[in-house]
Structure formats: structure tokens, C-alpha cells
Amino acid sequence: MSPPTRSSISFRGSSQIISEFFEYSVNSILYQRGIYPSDDFKSVKKYGLTLLVTHDEDIKAYIRKFMTQLHKWIINDKVSTFVLVIVNKNTGETVERWQFNIAINQEEEGEQSKQKSIEDIQREIQAIIRQITASVTFLPTLEVNDYTFNILVYADSSVNLPNNNEWIDSQDSKLVNNSESVKFKSFSTNEHKIDTLVSYKLDK
């Protein structure tokens, strides 16, 4: 019997794919937007691409801690949106807002599900990562060390926040004033669909 060409991805497996995508996307954005010096990043292979990820232990631990918690919330279908905002250190103004919307795939009644292969999913993720890389061609130039980043999660009101000071309830959506928005390609598993959008401050 020939080996199957498609594999069923569980809800947990789909959640893991999304969490990894967010982690590599955050690293790519921080590198491409020059939030930290290029020397703080190293090359890794992922999705058939060469990606840049931080090797600064503090930043790496910070991102990983958030992604671990986010993964738990995605598994339990408690998150609808993940946001990375880039903020001017001096003024506190949000200059870029990277928004990733998470939707559960709804199968129509009587529709037979077609299992999506890992290879197909990775090709879709490749396309988004390439768009993030190419975004420097239209996004305003940011000076290194003048900006920092924050992570926002739109979660169900029933979620329990971890017992630390790193997650807090916020009424501030960190929107960009006088902004332009660009929608990127999406990717999907059998369980989820992720849409990506970046909003950025227009030059006056």
C-alpha cells in the first residue's frame, strides 16, 4: 500500500503550527524593521527559508514565554487576534501595528473535509514570510534603538491571566493614527485560518 500523501492535523497540532508561525513572524518583523541591531540575530532554516531570529537571551525568553501562553489559549479557542505593535520609545506613539486574526474553520453541513498536507501549509506560510521581508520596500524607515515592541492578545473574557506582571488587561488597542493598511496573504490548516494585516503611520 502506498503511503498517504496527506495527513490529518489535530486541533492541538494546528495550534502548534500557528504559535510557531507567530514566533518566527515576530522575529522576522523585529529584524526587518530594525528594532534591534542586526548583530543580535542569527540565521535558521524554517519553512524552506533562511530566517533571522534573535540570539539575545532576554528577548528570546520574553518572546518564548508569551508564545507558550498563547499556544495554550489557542488550543482552548480563547484567542481571536494576536497583535505586535512597534512603539516610539520617546513619545510612546504606535507607528506600526501587525495584526494576525485567528479563525476556526467552519465546515459546511454535508461537506467532506479534505485534509491539508504540511507541505501545503508551509508553502502558504512561506508566502507570508516573504511578504514580511518585502514590506521594507513600502514601510517607513525606523531608526535602530528608537523603537520597542509590545504584544497584544484579544482573548475571551473567561481566560485566566498567568500570575505574573507580564500579562495585564488593557483598554488601549495601540492603534496607529493617520495610518495606511496593507493586507497580506493568509494561510490555513484544516482547523484554523490566519489573516495578516499591517497598519503603519503615514509620513506627514
Automatic annotation (TrEMBL):
Record bears the keyword Cell division: yes
Primary location: nucleus
Domain HORMA: 12-198
Pfam short name (any one): HORMA
Keyword line: Cell cycle, Cell division, Mitosis, Nucleus
Gene Ontology CC entries for this record: cytoplasm; kinetochore; mitotic checkpoint complex; nucleoplasm
Keyword Cell cycle listed: yes
One Gene Ontology biological process: mitotic spindle assembly checkpoint signaling
Locations listed in the record: Nucleus
Family indicated by similarity: Belongs to the MAD2 family.
Name recorded for this polypeptide: HORMA domain-containing protein
Organism name: Wickerhamomyces mucosus
